[in-house]
């Protein structure tokens, strides 16, 4: 009987096995062999075992699927393996129901009757801390969001400094919320048929800028982001500009090609930063007129 060892790359989409004594690798399961929208669990920044052998030649592994912006669901799956060849002896099958966590650090008892694993469930919350008088210290922070449903992005303050604006997918899709410092309920201030994030308030307090987009399944072509505007006091939304064709990378927030900031100083326009290859250009940004004149440019990532 031959023995086999598994390998799963940190950014790979397949689980391979090869003889422990050396030899060519064989793909046992990949994203393509799973139902559409599902993908193998992989490690982000460090090696975490999402796969384990059972003594009866089953390979047990973790699978994830999108559950909303910045969120995913997890489940355990298995595939039988032929001991002599290391090939899959059947199609992958689901072992556990979908839930709000991903299974990691899988281990199986020697008799193959018990499986243990950790459930990985990440979310972010908003905390509030007062600054000390010297400006170099803070008071003990307190948690502002308490529902354990996570925050997509912490966006801005209201002009009166009495409420925080943030984005969250707690209701199934990303929406923009307002949370007063002395209030116990989060108020939805932007919702609709799309998902919304990155709400910025202009310096004069008249407008709120935010991004609207339609999430797509893993592997599908991402939709384009649209920069939207809405009167902060309430009113119908409008489109300011659309992200360039082919630029949106909605599955990796670190790869957006443009971002925008609105300073707190009155009568100063917002600034739009747009990535073009190795260039990062900055433009003035008006909620009504859109992208204005070039302010500055720089190069990054070259070489």
Overview of the molecule:
The structure is a single chain. With 303 residues, the protein is mostly beta strands. It is built from no helices and 24 strands. The chain has strands spanning 4-7, 14-19, 26-30, 39-40, 51-53, 58-68, 71-80, 93-94, 102-108, 115-120, 127-128, 142-143, 153-157, 163-168, 175-180, 187-190, 195-201, 207-213, 226-231, 238-242, 258-261, 270-276, 279-286, 290-299. Strands 4, 5, 6, 7 and 8 form a five-stranded antiparallel β-sheet that branches. Strands 13-14-15-16 form a four-stranded antiparallel β-sheet, with no helix packed on it. A hairpin with a 2-residue loop joins strand 6 and strand 7. It is elongated and about 75 Å long. The termini are far apart.
Give the quaternary arrangement of the chains.
single chain
Main beta sheet: 5 strands, antiparallel
Binned, the helix content reads under 10%
Average pLDDT figure: 78
C-alpha Rg (nearest Å)? 24 Å
Q: Helix tally?
A: 0
**Can you tell me the overall shape?**
elongated
What is shown here, in short?
This protein has 303 residues and is mainly beta.
Task: Give keywords.
303 residues; mainly beta; 24 strands; elongated; disordered N terminus
Helices and strands, with pairings:
Blueprint: E1 4-7, E2 14-19, E3 26-30, E4 39-40, E5 51-53, E6 58-68, E7 71-80, E8 93-94, E9 102-108, E10 115-120, E11 127-128, E12 142-143, E13 153-157, E14 163-168, E15 175-180, E16 187-190, E17 195-201, E18 207-213, E19 226-231, E20 238-242, E21 258-261, E22 270-276, E23 279-286, E24 290-299
Antiparallel strand pairs: 1-2, 2-3, 4-6, 5-6, 6-7, 7-8, 9-10, 11-12, 13-14, 14-15, 15-16, 17-18, 18-19, 19-20, 21-22, 22-23, 23-24
